[in-house]
Amino acid sequence: MVALVLGLVVIGGVVSVFLSNQQSYRTNQALADVQDSSRIAFELMARDIRDAGMTGCGNTDRVANVLKTGPNGTNTDWWANWGNAVIGYDNGVADPAVTTGTGLNQRVAGTDSIQLIGADGNGLSIVKHTATAATFFINAATTSIQAGDVVIVCDPDHAAITQVTNYNSNNVSLVHNTGLGTPGNCSKGLGYPTQCTTNGNTYTFTPNSQIAKLAATDWYIGNNPVGGRSLYRIALVNNAGTPTPTPQEMVRDVTDMQITYHQSNGANANAFVGASSITDWLKVDAVQVTLTLQSANLRAGTDGQPIQRIFTATTTLRNRVN
C-alpha cells in the first residue's frame, strides 16, 4: 500500500510537470506566432506607406490626371484621385473603399483604415512618346503592363495618370487614347494642367521618362472567412481590362488597428494625431500604426484565454521628406 501511494505521488508529479510544460509550450508558441504576424503585417503595410505619393520623378505636386473617374471627370473613384495619395479614416468614419459591417471582407466597426496611392516600384523607361498617336514605346523586350492597366508616367516637368487602352507586344508599345477602356480616358493629352477634351493639353514626354502601374491600396481590419478578424488590403486588380478594387486577406487574427499621422505644418506639427485632426493631407509625412493581434490558439494564455499583444510602428513617407 505504501509503495502504491508513493507510486501515485510520483505519477501525479510527472503528470503535473508534463501539463505545465505543455502549457508553457503552447504559450511560447502562441507568442512567437503573434510576433511573427506583427512583423509580417508591419512590413507589408510599410511598403505601401513608404511609396505613397511616389511618381518616380519626385514631382508629386504637378500631376495631370485624364481618367474619366479622376477629379477632372464626372465621377470620382477613390483610387483615381491623386489628391488622396495618403488619407485616413478614423473609427466611425466611412471609408469609400470598403463597407463597414459584419459581412465577409467588410470593415470592422471601431477600427481605423488608410488609403495609399503611388507608382508601383517596378517601373520602366520609355524610348519615345508620340503624343499625336497617344503611344509610348517602352525600353524593354516585354512588360507586365496590359490593356486596362492604369499607369503613371513622369519626367522632370510633371507626371500624368492615364489608362492603357491597347498594348502591342510586337513593338512593345502602350496606347493611351480616348474612346476605349473602363473607366477610360477623357483625353489623350497628358500635359499639365489637365484638360478633359479629346486632344486636351498636348505634351510629349521625353526619352527615358519613367512609367509604372498605379498602385492604389486600402488597409483595414475585416471579417475573415472563419468568423474572426484579419488585416485586409484592397488592391487595384486588372479584371479583364477593368481596374477593380479587390480585397485580400493579408494577416489573420489582427483584431484592431488604430492609426495616427504626423503633419509637417499646423498646430499639431510636433505630434501624431488622428485622421480627424489632419488639416492638410498633402503635408502628412509619417504614419504611426498600432495593431492588436490575438493568438490563433484560443487557450494559449495561462488563464485559458487567447494571448493578445499590441504593437506600434512608425513609417515615414519617403516622397515627402528630405
UniProtKB/TrEMBL annotation:
InterPro entries per the UniProt record, alphabetical: PilW
Protein's name in the database: Prepilin-type N-terminal cleavage/methylation domain-containing protein
Domain of life: Bacteria
GO terms classed as biological process: type IV pilus assembly
Pfam family for this entry, one: PilW
